[in-house]
Amino acid sequence: MRGILAGLVLLGIFIAIPLRSTGYLLQLGTDTLAAVAIAYGWNLIGGFAGYFSFGQVSFYGLGAYATALLVLRAHLPWYFAAPAGGLVGGCAALLLGPIMLRLRGILFALGMLGLARILAVVFNQWRYAGGSVGLSLPAVLTPVSVYIGMGLLALVAFCITAYFVHSGFGLDVMSVNEDEDAAVSVGVPTTRVKVIAFVLSGFLPAIAGGLTAWNHSYIDPTSAFDPSIDLMTVVYVMFGGIGTLWGPFIGAVVLMIAGEEFLVYFPNLELALYGIVVIATVLAFPGGLVGLANRFGWLMRPIILAPRRLPAGSAPERAEPAGTLPVLEVRDLTVRFGGLTAVDRVSLSVARGETVCIIGANGAGKTTLFNAITGVIPASSGEILYHGAPVSHLPTFRRAQRGMARSFQIPRLMRSFTVWENVVLASRHGRQSHRVVEHAAWVLHTMGLAGMWRDPVSRLTPGFQRQLEFARVLALHPELVLLDEVMAGMTRAEQEDVRRVIRRLPEFGIAGVALVEHVIAAVADLCDRMVVLDFGRKIAEGPPAAVLADPAVVRAYLGEPL
Amino acid sequence: MLALQILINGLLLGGLYILIAQSLNLIFGVMGVVNLAHGAFIVVAGLFTYWFAGRTGINPLALLPFVFVVMALVGAVLQPLLVEPLMKFGRSKAELLSLMVTFGLDYVLVELALQLWGSSFVSLPYLQSSWTLGGLAFSQALVVSGGFAAAVSALLYWWLNRTDSGKCLLAASQSETGAICCGIDVRRVRMLAFALGVALAASAGVLVIIVEALAPQTADDLTLLAFVIIALGGLGSYAGVAVAALLLGIAQSLTGYFVGGNAEYVLPYVLLILVMVVRPGRFRPV
Amino acid sequence: MSGAASPAPALAVEEVTAGIGPLTILDGLSLELGAGEVVVVLGANGAGKTTLLRTIAGLLAPRRGHIRLFGEPIEGRPAHQITRAGIGHVPSGRELFPRLTVADHLELGGRLSPSARRAELRRRMLAMFPVLGARLGQRAGTLSGGEQQMLAIARALMTDPRVLLLDEPSTGLAPKIVLSVFRTFPVLREQGVSILLAEQSLALGLSAADRAYVVDQGRIVLSGAARALASDHRVVDTYLGR
């Protein structure tokens, strides 16, 4: 209701502006709408995905030039040329994305900065595109048409962002920002997700560039690749609220208008002021205006894919057991780092219905083994077979999607998400992805988390956070579950809860469980077989009682006396 | 003959580059902070030198110690205000947020420079002639500037490796926990690193303005140049960065002669992107 | 209780609770290190040994409880000041400076002391670890595991500590080397250094110490004279969860 009212008010203002004046105010409106569109574009990759780019002006300029050339050389009307320019920007992002997005943080930011500079120099030299002199475009007949075009662009940008904030895809993008490694372990195809966000973030400023070029009837490298556009964009988004639906809009509008006022009193100091705004925002209120509003409960992000009321959910259909092959088989697995052999020709298997416990002293290679099985680190040699089929070539997220789930030593939950969203992120990509909401609801009820399904993770006690970690694993509807030191840091009571869950795992359709554990007392009676690792090698295997009494095992744990 | 000339010009230019790069390397190595305002400090110092020496006729080299001290104080004030508060977020978040903050700082400084000195390219006409030696011409300005830069870099090297405070800085950049175990106040080391980095960048500015024209808008190019050299030379490796700086100087000299136009300005960026794509591991601490 | 007050123990950990984020790793843990003693803290991995040492060294601030160095409370102080107060720390992972030389490490460790004392400490270090003397100009990153461990200990000892915290010094080392490291303990004791050692290897730990504590999930579950605990089956039970 409130949203529709706000929308009508904005529409009213939008229509009023060209009616009131066709001069200065209209131009301000057009420029503001451009700023809004570009800000939304930056927000997609910088805010939601967490990849700060200081070179989005690259796409702006490319779009501007593409549009200008199409208008001049191919005689396309602007309303074809501008979207085509947008496509050029999007394609550039598509080509660059897989390369640039492999880099983390600062490298990506700097790489984009460098790209913008390269493009500026290239276009300065390129005579076909007018070189340093630039290109003149046929004059705009009606400035209002540009204004409307920009308004549509801003609306599209808003809608794309709204989609991000309401959809599972958006949740995937945000999970990349939260914890990319944990996202991968839950089946999120992070590379694809990042590239799509990047393409969209290149598409929007490219169209804005095209429309602006047309608006000014002129384009040259200095204005097309003007680095201050990057600054302004970053300022608008940070000030308004990074990673939010309304932040870019509020930031762009407020600062554009404030900037205009400021310009009257202090011409030439605009950029310096914006620099100070960035610094102040990052240091004092990194969440921006929307972040401040959130503290009062306003402009909160809706919980993604959440139904109005939590349904009871239903258990997944029981699949027919597929054959007698072991769920997991590891053959002669070796993992080497530099000169160190962390895992040395280890072979083990988890048969259908088995729970295998892997123990060993510190540095024995247990977590490394898990990391190799899930694909987080590459194995130097050996085979990993899942239901008899080799999986060593599959990336981690694929293995997760096929039913190989793992939990982490320290729970790696998405801390800014709610309980519901953590679970639904997994159920979207797991083997129950055709009944995402139903399955997620069922998992929450089963793990006793239904009462707090809308709570942010940060409010959960450690015990419940551990339960949520389990819930996330279950939401994948896995067949093989790898639990990495789940008892760490748990009180006796919490351990009992975890033990109860582990005992029930077969009910959930889980065919095999492998546990790495130090708190042996808590798991000894839960496992069918125990495997002992020492310095990367398997030194014992068998029923727990026998293994724990094995003198070789005792010696490995207790160490040699002096 | 010509080849030798190009080579030597490149080496001298490289001398300047060492200083430009090492000052950034210092900050990056200790804190993981990429100071995007690095180039701005260079430009502000350079333009100040141009202005002051132009007005008073003083030898610009005499300004070097003054600029160094003042900018060191500026850096010592800025670090606890702008950068240190971000350190509590952990290394990777701190890296990104400090990018934002120094990005803002960059613009503040560049705007300040534009206000004070305008946007035209200016250079100090100090030492206009060249020395000739055996058929080769050496621009006096380049020799003096490159020589001084090399000397300052050598001084930095000496300080880092032979003094207690310098070694504390190296220690803190190689293992923060280990440094704490030696009773080193890592917070103060970070402040020192930043102050020193800014002071050295400013010193580079004083030396660059004698040789090349500067304008406020070239600030980002200088920052990227420094970053490319660090990338090529290997983060944290003093010798590697020095070699990379010299090689880049030579490469630019060659490109400028044989390809001409603006190719030599694009070279650092192309190299940057190439290195990032082919060897992203370059940026993780050695 | 009347009479003279007993001298404060070198280190007193009183009901300390500490953790990282949502996890609580130390749960009301108390122990004591007497002056001139060698005490070992045993326990399976994840029991809290490293966290305990890091908390004492000031790398982690305790949520509750007190830590006293010869009676003086030090909890909550910045870590580098705790080093200056007299606690030397050899962290797990050693945390050496890979591109600095052996001599540099000794110098950095000794920077807090006046030059005469520093020279004396250095002489002692080289006498205790002659292999380091042979490699003074070598970079720490190129040393072998055993040499690195010795260097880490030497560096900590150069800070002239009254209490030395050793975190699993035997990790990744051949028994022979561990032996040579532990042989330095009597010498250190003579020089007035009290040692708190965290060890996973039961046999090694008990053979080197006077007294021992066994930690399980953040609490002390067993304590006593090392010799007595060596033949106490409950210790083994704690490890293997029996």
Total beta-strand segments of chain A = 12
**What is the topology, as strand order, of the major beta sheet of chain C?**
6-7-8-3-9-10
Give me the number of helical elements of chain C.
11
| Alpha-beta classification of chain A | alpha/beta
Which chains have the largest interface?
A-B, 43 and 39 residues
Low-confidence stretches of chain C: none
Query: Which bin fits the share of residues in helices of chain C?
Result: 25-40%
Q: What distinguishing features does this structure have?
A:
heterotrimer; A: 562 residues; Rossmann fold; 6-stranded mixed sheet; 22 helices; 12 strands; 56% helix; C: 242 residues; alpha/beta; 37% helix; 26% strand
What does this structure look like?
The complex is a heterotrimer of chains A (562), B (286) and C (242). Chain A has 22 helices and twelve strands. By secondary structure, chain A is an alpha/beta fold. In chain A, the strands form three sheets. Chain A has a six-stranded mixed beta sheet with strand order 8-9-10-5-11-12, with helices on both faces. In chain A, strands 4-3-6-7 form a four-stranded antiparallel beta sheet, with helices on one face. Chain A has a two-stranded antiparallel ribbon with strand order 1-2. In chain A, a hairpin with a 2-residue loop joins strand 6 (381-386) and strand 7. Chain B contains eleven helices and two strands. A two-stranded antiparallel sheet of chain B has the order 1-2. Chain B starts with a helix and ends in an 8-residue tail after the last helix. The termini of chain C are far apart. In chain C, the strands form two sheets. Chain C has a six-stranded mixed beta sheet with strand order 6-7-8-3-9-10, with helices on both faces. Chain C has a four-stranded antiparallel beta sheet with strand order 2-1-4-5, with helices on one face. With 242 residues, chain C is α/β, with parallel strands linked by helices. Chain C has eleven helices and ten strands. Chain C has helices at 49-57, 79-85, 102-109, 115-128, 130-133, 145-158, 175-182, 185-190, 202-208, 226-230, 233-240; strands at residues 11-20, 23-33, 38-42, 64-69, 72-73, 87-90, 163-167, 194-199, 211-216, 219-225. Helix content of chain C is 37%, strand content 26%. The longest helix of chain C is centred in the middle third of the chain and has 14 residues, at 115-128. The chains are: A alpha/beta (562), B mainly alpha (286), C alpha/beta (242). The A-C interface holds A 361-363, 410-411, 460-462, 465, 485, 488-489, 518-522, 524, 548, 554, 557-562 and C 19-25, 44-47, 168, 170-172, 175, 178-179, 182, 199-205, 207-208, 217, 236, 239-242.
